[in-house]
Amino acid sequence: MRKIRILFFLMLTFIMGNAQISTMNTLSEKEEQDGWKLLFNGSDFDGWKTFQGGEITGWKVINGVLNNSGVGSDHGGDIVTKKKYKNFELYIEWKIDPQSNSGIFYHVNEKVGKAIYESGPEYQLIDDKGWPNKLNDNQYSAANYAMHPPRVSAVKDVSEWNQTRIIVDGTHVQHYLNGELVVDYHLWDADWQLRKEKGKWKDFPEYGIAKTGNIGLQDHGGLAQFRNIKIREIK
């Protein structure tokens, strides 16, 4: 009887796992009606390219999940959408390995500098608790990196899936993490300008000034994984 229960449990686990894979990277009928579009189809890199380049190398798609190289800083290169976006709501699920670091970018201008962060603001992804060095307030997960710190810590334990929403509507930007509004700011207002002038981006004149651009994902150190990436443009 015990063997039957174990077999049943294994079969149920297998079925549930397959069901989860089959529902990943899909849109409901309601989402389609509301204007959502998938940015990642769960099987290949259609719609994506390397930042300032072409064919994607280093990144892999495994069981419906987008994986960066996971082997070190910028080894696989950062990737961006081929399409540019201005006003939008972006939804993405992500998790990272211990002591890993990545980011989600928007309004990326590929004609600026040599790195994705020189133009596009970054929604930070990092191992908040396990990072070996002391982090500044504006370096924790969900921060507008090196600009606006998260109001509260809403990140899950490392290697658990997190849910992120980024809303860009005109100058108004909001960062959500696991249902919590953690960052809320306005592009180019006096506070934004002051933070730029006194912080890391003071020597990057093109940082954050584009009003439209690519969505980007970073390969910056350690393993980061992404799934269920979708976007709804705001008219």
Can you give a write-up of this model?
- This protein is of the alpha+beta class.
- It has one domain: Exo-inulinase, domain 1 (Jelly Rolls), CATH 2.60.120.
- 15% of the residues lie in helices and 33% in strands.
- It is built from three helices and 13 strands; from the N terminus they run H-H-E-E-E-E-E-E-E-E-E-E-E-H-E-E.
- It has helices spanning 2-23, 29-33, 190-198; strands at residues 36-38, 48-50, 60-62, 65-67, 79-85, 88-96, 101-108, 122-126, 162-169, 172-177, 180-186, 213-217, 224-233.
- Strands 1, 3, 4, 6, 9, 10, 11 and 13 form an eight-stranded antiparallel sheet that branches.
- Strand 3 (60-62) and strand 4 form a beta hairpin.
- The radius of gyration is 19 Å and the shape is globular.
- The model is unreliable at 12-21 (pLDDT under 50).
Task: Please provide a brief summary of the model.
The protein is of the alpha+beta class. The chain has helices at 2-23, 29-33, 190-198; strands spanning 36-38, 48-50, 60-62, 65-67, 79-85, 88-96, 101-108, 122-126, 162-169, 172-177, 180-186, 213-217, 224-233.
Rg over CA atoms, rounded to whole Å, is 19 Å
Looking at CATH, which topology would you report? Jelly Rolls
Low-confidence segments, given as residue ranges, are 12-21
Mean pLDDT: 91
CATH architecture, by name, is Sandwich
- Distance, first to last CA: 60 Å
Q: H/E order of the elements?
A: HHEEEEEEEEEEEHEE
Helix content: 10-25%
Biggest beta sheet attributes: 8 strands, antiparallel
Number of domains: 1
Please give the number of β-strands.
13
* Beta-strand residue percentage: 25-35%
Number of helices: 3
Structural class: alpha+beta
Approximate shape: globular
